[in-house]
Amino acid sequence: MAIFEIFLLLTFVTISFCVMLSKTWKRSSSLPTNWPLLGMLPGLAQNSRRIHAFATELLSESNGTFEFKGPWFCNMDMLITSDPANIHHIFSKNFSNYPKGPEFRKIFEILGDGIFNADFELWEFHRRTTLSFMNHEKFYTLLESSVWEKVETGLIPILDYFSEQRIDFDLQDIFQRLTFDSICKMVLDYDPGSLSTDLPYVPCEKAFNDAIEALLHRHILPESIWKLQKWLGIGKERKLTDAWKAFDKFIYPCIPSKEKTNDFNFNLLKAFKKAYEEKNGSLEEQRNFLRDTSLSLMFAGRDTTSTCLTWLFWLIATNPVEESKIREEIETELKLMKNGNKWRFFNVQESRKLIYLHGALSESLRLFPPVALEHKAPILPDVLPSGNHIQENSKVIISFYSMGRMESIWGKDCLEFKPERWISARGRTKHEPSYKFPAFNAGPRTCLGKEMAFIQMKMVAATIIYNYDIQLVKGHSVSPRDSIILQAKDGLKVKLCKRNV
Ligand code: HEM
After folding, report:
1. For ligand 1, atom 19, which residue shows the shortest CA distance?
2. Torsion sign across C-alpha atoms 393, 43, 108, 189
3. How many domains in the chain?
4. Is the C-beta atom of 449 inside 6 A of ligand 1?
5. Quick check: CB of 212 below 6 Å from ligand 1?
6. Which ligand 1 atom is nearest residue 374's CA?
7. Closest by Cα among 365, 363, 351 to 322
8. Is 166 domain-assigned?
9. 293 CA to middle of ligand 1, Å?
10. C-alpha angle 295/400/406, rounded to 5°?
11. What is the CATH classification number for the domain harbouring 206?
12. Could you tell me the CA-to-CA distances from 136 to 131, 140, 265, 412 in Å, in that order?
């Protein structure tokens, strides 16, 4: 047996022994023991199927900042924090000291040179190009009509079909299809039509789920282990490699061909192609860059929005009083949702009137932030406002999930779904600083799609809430998935019943 295999076997036996020991040894604290050699890895292994809840327990017990010790020589030490003062410091005040860094890039290698991996000049290029596209006068008009078209021709026929047939179905899957089609249309100018009654299997659409789970594992496992799995082509790494192939197969054919882009056709890929041409890269580089850019934007637009909608509907289905308040607001503010036999389109201005629905969506984002954690690496050593010292290139994990569940931030009722939390005394939407509510990130790297996501989510949510009664399927348990995007682990199984409106 090779020395490496003996080492792996010994590590496995020791971890199992420590896990067994810590199970039998009753302790009042949930803080993990720091074992010689293995550090806190056994505690992490024991909680590996409830990683976000575990982080929240650690952070509640340690005033919002916890120093995790990994096994010796594995470079797994990390500082985990949910302290708003630290967030403000890292994301805004000392932003230049906290780039995404090489560790982040290694984990998210699948995104290549896309915006999420980029720092400094490349990041500025991405941000400038995306912003100028989104600030174009046509952007919101086109967004409104394309989202509405998806709702009218994709979503409503499917929901009508399921409700007429009284079929149970997974609402999360429907949302993922809808947001996938929409973001592909916006970025690639191609609608793959995954949202249709026969629920077609589109490999690229499903590949996102495999990829995001594997990416969380790369945060937890020592780099040597996931690299070994990748090399052997096993486990989640195998799925990530397959997902990579599915993305490439889908995106490359959509990339515009050799000829120069003269006109400003309204899709992001062309806007980037035009901007990139001005930088004079080779054709090969350009194609790879456009693939990375598109994939990153598809990640940004598909999973976040569909995850927020999924948790919104779970929260509504388990809180009927809030559901009727949202319905009342839609009826009052949007008057008749119906125009003859057709559902009525409502625009960006009208969607801003839906203050209670906005509060409900914000609650969904607070309790189940789709991007559950962030990863930073300081260039220079630093001292955080919490008093913790951090070394250069060390790992800092910011748990957005835990932040929404801290009594110290949101008060004693922090675990309750209360859309009122987001309504001011004058009946307007209440704004919270992003270092307290970082679902869309904070500081210069704040999400560029926030407005766009709210419009899309309001159109979809208002249409469903107004037209259908939603029941959860009995016995189906709903809990967050261990992944970098906080999807519902086994989906959201529901039954719909059409309302008489
Ligand atoms: C509910 C929906 C959404 C949520 C919760 C959300 C959240 C976030 C978060 C947390 C980040 C920071 C990620 C990081 O730096 O690693 C981010 C960045 C970003 N988001 Fe969103 N997002 C949403 C929807 C969208 C949509 C629809 C788009 C449109 C394409 C979008 C585009 C972007 C872009 C381009 C960035 C990168 C910003 C930068 O690094 O400068 N997002 N978003």
Report:
1. 447
2. negative
3. 1
4. yes
5. no
6. 16
7. 363
8. yes
9. 13
10. 165
11. 1.10.630.10
12. 9, 8, 12, 44
Can you tell me whether residue 415 is helix, strand or coil? coil
With a 6 Å cutoff on the Cβ, whether 293 touches ligand 1 is: no
How would you write the pLDDT of the chain (501 residues) with one tens digit per residue?
A: 444 444 444 555 555 554 555 554 445 567 888 888 788 888 888 887 788 999 999 999 999 999 998 888 777 789 999 999 999 999 999 999 999 888 889 999 999 999 999 999 999 999 999 999 898 888 888 888 889 899 999 999 999 999 999 999 999 999 999 999 999 998 998 999 999 999 999 999 999 989 988 998 888 788 888 999 999 999 999 999 999 999 999 999 998 765 544 444 567 877 888 788 777 667 778 899 999 999 999 999 989 999 999 999 999 999 999 999 999 999 888 876 666 666 667 778 888 899 999 999 999 999 999 999 998 989 999 999 999 999 998 889 999 999 999 999 999 999 999 999 999 999 999 999 999 999 999 999 999 999 999 999 999 999 999 999 999 999 999 999 888 899 999 999 999 999 877
Residue 300, ligand 1, Cβ within 6 A: yes
Distance 115 CA to ligand 1 centre (A): 10
- Which residue puts its alpha carbon closest to atom 18 of ligand 1? 447
Q: How many CA atoms lie within 13 A of 411 on its CB side?
A: 5
Residue 373 lies in a domain: yes
* Domain extent for 457: 31-498
User: DSSP states of 469-489 as a string?
Assistant: EEEEPTT----B-SSSB--BT
Annotated binding residues for heme: 447
Quick check: is 106 in a domain?
yes
Distance CA 456, CA 326 (A): 16
Q: How far is the CA of 294 from the centre of ligand 1 (A)?
A: 13
Instruction: Indicate whether 15 belongs to any domain.
Output: no
